[in-house]
Structures are given as structure tokens and as C-alpha cells.
């Protein structure tokens, strides 16, 4: 019986592979892809609302027009000009760019602020379009399907292997890392080709990798944000310079950099966190638009987005999340929450917190339908939820941990939740964001001397050096355009 199962599985795998085998639009080689063009487009259409909800769009007509103009020009000379490409700037200070199958390409305002010329932008644009044209997402998915089939086969063959099937499947991400690095190298090559074909100097693409490296070192992260989704294939700075030189030697032309036009275009772009979306200062989260505040426990990490604020200690055994609640009253919002999260309510009370009508629930999450695992104190999620009604809006603060840890964590949850209060401080309510401003150097000198003469504090010389792609000792001539940061 087991032999028959294996034979059928092998035949099924071979049949699927033959049916899904296509030619890669970039390489022309045969490949196994389980996603049609229509499915790629549908995936992008489904993902786009989530991207917008999570990050928001950055409204700047001149920048949006610019990326659309360049994006469409590049799409036309790409290997897949038939896709319905769309280009967006998302409202995030993180330095990143990413693509979704079907032609959706996103740049954060953070990366737009860090580009120092059009050619740097064009190189990254080409890299992202390269991920789409080379079908990297589709190929990644296909590899995961084949690997999963292999795991199922192993579970059938060996009962011992079956015990580790789940762990093996979880490890697929690590097995795919080398594959993803191959994708990065391929996209770097396409970035050079595509940006060069629309007239830009691809050497600038390589130079931007030096900026990314400095951002990583400055933040102290092992993997910078842009590299968490774009693994560094190694020595890409030198490799992209080589690719650019090779292309330009074979295709002589007047390749553009366009530094001044780009800097003029980003004059006034938001820099860093936008206070109106909420900000943390001295262990307190303030939201000027929604007009509330609450404490952030000392040492906790936090992340803010347009749809929620989440925070947790480094050991990660508990977390707190603030978000909007659905309902026209506290009772209706509580009922919706219980249904949506599949909760069993243990306690429920009405109260008033700092003048705000509130409801407090303690609940446990029930197992999902079909879930066989027996619930224990170690694997059952227990949640304390505080719902607050402020005018026509209802917010909910969740404190989450496992039932075994709940009694120890609850005092922390309660301290945070019971200090949720209206925001009235005019300084916080009227806090203005920082913006990048383009100014002319008032004198000759080193970057450090000139940027200090422009009124920037010494403590921000390195940060501004990264922003301008310059080192402290680099020479600057009088009249050169530089980025400064002001409110």
C-alpha cells in the first residue's frame, strides 16, 4: 500500500511539473511555475489593499508623477511589457522598495529621501521590475510546492521522518535563502540593463548600495530593512559597477545622473516618523490626530502603522496591541471582537478610565475548527482587552500572553491600559514633522564644516552624511546642493 502511494505521488509530481513548465521571460530557459499571468495579476490586486492599509500612501503629486513616468518607460523596454504595471510611494520612513507579482512596485518615502539623483532611483526601479519580469515570486512559490511534496513523500516513506515533517517545512525558508540570493543577483543585472536602456548611469545603482550599508551599520541591525526582503548576494557593489561598465562599453551613450533635478523634486519630503500618525517620546505614545496617549513600558520595542500600534519586551513572551474596534457602542464592539477572534470570555466589566467610557474583558482564544491540539496553559492564548469609547470612535488595547503567564503579565497590561487618556498637551498636538530641505553650501570646506555652517548640529553629521551620501571629510564646493533636515 505504501509503495503504491509513493508511486502515485511521484507520478503526480512529474505530471504537475510537466503541466507547469514554461519558458522564463528573461532567461528563455524552461522552468516550473504554478502561477499563470492572470494569477500573478490577481495576487497583486489582492495584496495592494493590504499594503495601503498597513503603510498608507504618501501624497506628493510631483513625485508620484515622476515614478509613474519612469516606471512606465522602463516597463515598456522590460521583458514583460504586457503587465498592467502600477507604481506607488508608501508613507513609511523605512528605507525600502519592494514589488508584488502582477506589476505592483512600491517605494517608501524613506528611500525616496535617501536617493541623491535620478539614476540611483532608476537602478532600484529596474531591480524591482526585474523581480516581476523574472517571475521570482512565482518561482519561489513553485519551489516551495515541490519541496512540500518532497516532505510529504518523506513522511509516507519513513514514520520517523514524519515526526520532523512540520519542523522541516518550517525550515524551507532557510533552504530558499540561497535561491533568493540568486534572484537578487539576477535582479541586479536586470536593474543595470533596464535603467541603462532608459538613459541612466547604472554606476549610481552600485553607489546606492554603499548608502544601504551605512544605514545598516548606523542602526546596528544585523540585516537592514531593505535587505530583510532583499538578501545581499555578496560583493554586489563591485559586481554592479562591473555590469554597468560592461553595458556602457557595449552600448556607448550619454548616460544621465540628474542630481540637481532630483534634489529639487524631493525638497520638502517628510523625513522620519510623521508625528500626526503617532510617535513615542520618553516612554509615552502620543497620537495627535486621534488625541490620545498611553505609556510604553521601559525597554519594550514598538512598531507603529496606520492600522495599529504594537509593542513587546525583547524576550517576546507577551505583547500589547492598540487598534480600532468595529461597532457603534462598547457592547457591540465587544461582541464583534469576541466573534472575530474566536474568544471565550472569562470576565467582563464596564468602567470609566480617565473620563473615558470603557469595557474590560479577559478571554481565552478557542481552538480553530478542525484543530486537534489539546489546549493547555502553555499553548492557550489569554487576552486582556480594554475598549475605550472616544466620541464616535472605539479603540481596543489588547494584552496577549499564554495562560500560564497571564497572572504575571496582567499588572503590566493594566498599568498601560489604565493610563490611556485624552491628549491635551499643545506641544504634542501641534508637533510638526521633520522635512528634507535642499540648500546651497554657503562656503567651500569638508562636508562636516559646511553642514555645521548651515546650522545643523554636530550630533547629526553622520546621519546627514548618510542622507547626502557623503563622508565627514568629503570636500564640498560653495553653491553645491545639500540636504538638511528641519521642522
What's the arrangement of strands in the largest beta sheet? 10-11-12-16-15-14-13
Give the CA-based shape: globular
Major β-sheet profile: 7 strands, antiparallel
> Helical amount among residues, as a percent range?
40-55%
Unreliable sequence segments = 1-21, 139-179, 220-227
User: What gap, in angstroms, lies between the N and C termini?
Assistant: 73 Å
Radius of gyration, in Å, reads 26 Å
Category from helices, strands and their pairing: alpha+beta
Characterize the structure shown.
The protein has helices spanning 2-20, 37-55, 61-77, 109-114, 118-133, 136-157, 159-162, 165-170, 172-197, 203-219, 225-228, 236-250, 259-266, 330-341, 403-417, 426-429, 447-453, 461-468; strands at residues 21-23, 30-32, 86-90, 97-100, 104-108, 270-271, 279-281, 284-287, 292-295, 301-304, 308-312, 318-324, 343-353, 356-365, 381-390, 393-402, 421-422, 434-440, 445-446, 475-476, 481-486. With 487 residues, the protein is α+β, with helices and mostly antiparallel strands. The strands form six sheets. It has a seven-stranded antiparallel sheet with strand order 10-11-12-16-15-14-13. The longest helix has 26 residues, at 172-197. The chain starts with a helix and ends with a strand. The model is unreliable at 1-21, 139-179 and 220-227 (pLDDT under 50).
Question: How would you briefly describe this protein structure?
Answer:
By secondary structure, this protein is α+β, with helices and mostly antiparallel strands.
Amino acid at each position: 500500500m505504501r509503495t503504491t502511494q509513493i508511486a502515485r505521488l511521484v507520478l503526480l509530481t512529474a505530471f504537475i511539473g510537466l503541466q507547469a513548465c514554461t519558458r522564463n521571460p528573461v532567461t528563455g530557459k524552461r522552468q516550473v511555475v504554478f502561477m499563470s499571468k492572470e494569477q500573478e495579476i490577481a495576487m497583486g490586486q489582492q495584496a495592494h489593499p493590504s499594503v495601503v492599509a498597513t503603510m498608507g500612501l504618501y501624497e506628493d503629486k510631483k513625485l508620484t508623477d515622476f515614478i509613474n513616468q519612469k516606471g512606465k518607460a522602463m516597463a515598456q523596454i522590460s521583458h514583460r511589457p504586457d503587465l498592467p504595471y502600477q507604481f506607488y510611494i508608501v508613507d513609511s520612513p523605512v528605507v525600502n522598495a519592494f514589488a508584488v507579482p502582477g506589476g505592483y512596485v512600491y517605494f517608501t518615502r524613506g528611500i525616496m529621501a535617501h536617493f541623491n539623483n535620478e539614476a540611483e532611483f532608476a537602478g532600484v526601479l529596474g531591480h524591482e521590475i526585474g523581480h516581476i519580469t523574472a517571475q521570482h515570486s512565482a518561482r519561489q512559490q513553485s519551489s516551495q510546492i515541490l519541496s512540500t511534496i518532497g516532505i510529504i513523500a518523506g513522511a509516507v516513506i519513513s514514520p520517523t521522518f514524519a515526526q520532523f515533517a512540520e519542523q522541516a517545512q518550517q525550515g524551507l525558508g532557510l533552504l530558499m535563502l540561497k535561491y533568493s540570493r540568486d534572484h537578487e543577483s539576477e535582479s541586479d543585472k536586470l536593474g543595470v540593463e533596464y535603467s541603462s536602456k532608459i538613459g541612466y548611469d547604472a554606476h549610481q545603482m552600485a553607489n546606492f548600495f554603499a548608502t544601504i550599508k551605512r544605514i545598516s551599520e548606523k542602526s546596528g541591525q544585523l540585516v537592514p530593512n531593505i535587505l530583510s526582503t532583499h538578501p545581499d548576494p555578496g560583493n554586489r557593489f563591485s559586481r554592479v559597477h562591473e555590469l554597468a561598465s560592461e553595458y556602457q562599453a557595449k552600448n556607448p551613450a550619454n548616460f544621465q545622473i540628474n542630481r540637481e533635478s532630483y534634489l529639487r523634486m524631493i525638497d520638502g519630503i517628510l523625513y522620519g516618523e510623521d508625528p500626526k500618525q503617532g510617535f513615542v517620546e520618553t516612554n509615552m505614545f502620543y497620537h495627535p490626530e486621534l488625541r490620545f496617549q498611553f505609556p510604553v513600558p521601559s525597554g519594550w520595542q514598538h512598531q507603529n502603522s496606520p492600522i495599529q500600534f504594537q509593542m513587546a519586551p525583547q524576550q517576546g513572551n507577551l505583547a500589547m496591541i492598540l487598534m480600532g474596534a468595529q461597532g457603534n457602542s462598547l457592547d457591540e464592539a465587544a461582541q464583534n471582537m469576541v466573534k472575530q477572534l474566536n474568544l471565550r470570555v472569562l470576565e467582563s466589566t464596564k468602567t470609566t478610565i480617565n473620563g473615558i467610557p470603557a469595557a474590560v474583558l479577559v478571554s481565552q482564544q478557542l481552538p480553530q475548527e478542525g484543530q486537534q491540539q489539546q489546549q493547555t496553559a502553555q499553548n492557550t492564548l489569554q487576552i486582556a482587552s480594554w475598549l475605550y469609547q472616544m466620541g464616535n470612535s472605539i479603540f481596543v488595547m489588547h494584552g496577549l500572553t499564554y495562560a500560564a503567564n497571564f497572572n504575571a503579565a496582567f499588572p503590566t497590561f493594566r498599568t498601560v491600559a489604565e493610563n490611556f487618556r485624552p491628549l491635551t498637551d499643545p506641544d504634542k498636538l501641534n508637533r510638526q514633522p521633520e522635512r528634507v530641505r535642499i540648500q546651497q553650501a554657503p562656503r567651500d570646506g569638508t562636508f562636516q564644516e559646511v553642514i555645521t555652517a548651515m546650522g545643523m548640529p554636530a550630533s547629526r553629521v553622520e546621519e546627514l552624511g548618510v542622507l547626502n551620501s557623503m563622508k565627514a571629510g568629503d570636500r564640498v564646493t560653495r553653491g553645491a546642493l545639500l540636504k538638511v533636515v528641519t521642522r
